[in-house]
Amino acid sequence: MQEFELVYKAKKGDLKAMEELLDQNYAILKGYLLKITLDRELAADLTQETMLKALKKIKKFKNRSKFSTWLISIGTNLYKDHLRKNHRLIMVEDIDKLQVGILEAKETDLIITELLAELPLDKRLVLVLKHYFGYNYQEIGQMLNCPVGTVKSRMYYCMNFLRKRMTGGEEDE
Fold it and tell me: Domain 3-167: which topology?
């Protein structure tokens, strides 16, 4: 069944259609939240919370974007709320929580994960959405509720940061 048809049925109260929509997007959402939170437990909690919120608010989905885009927007906002409530910013030391669960990962993956942890959240979100999930700038702008120019600027910052870090140079200010 096509996504549009599933959304239509879910909005009409069809729980099987809603379940299928959530199942189809679960791995995408959880992977995204893991990459932005750098914390397996928090990512799992936020994934569940996002799914519950989507279930309750399905009638508010406008079909202007993919369902996964809507879920990622919800998940991003829940994560930002979590950070505000806990007055907590991700620090490089938090990477240890993630490393315990991915000891079998390649050394390169760990280096990239450490670099992601060093990026400010607003910029890390853009990088993850673009390069790990393949969203275009317009879709990312919709998800993060910011202009396309801002998305491109954040991506430029990320690429410059990563290039400098990988080559051992200093970051441009």
Answer: Butyryl-CoA Dehydrogenase, subunit A; domain 3 (1.20.140)
Give pLDDT tens digits along the chain (173 positions).
Answer: 799 999 999 999 999 999 999 999 999 999 999 988 888 899 999 999 999 999 999 999 988 888 999 999 999 999 989 988 876 544 444 444 444 444 444 455 666 777 888 899 899 999 989 888 888 999 999 989 999 999 999 999 988 888 888 777 655 54
Closest CA to 151 of 170, 128, 172: 128
Domain boundaries, the chain: 3-167
Sequence letter at residue 86? N
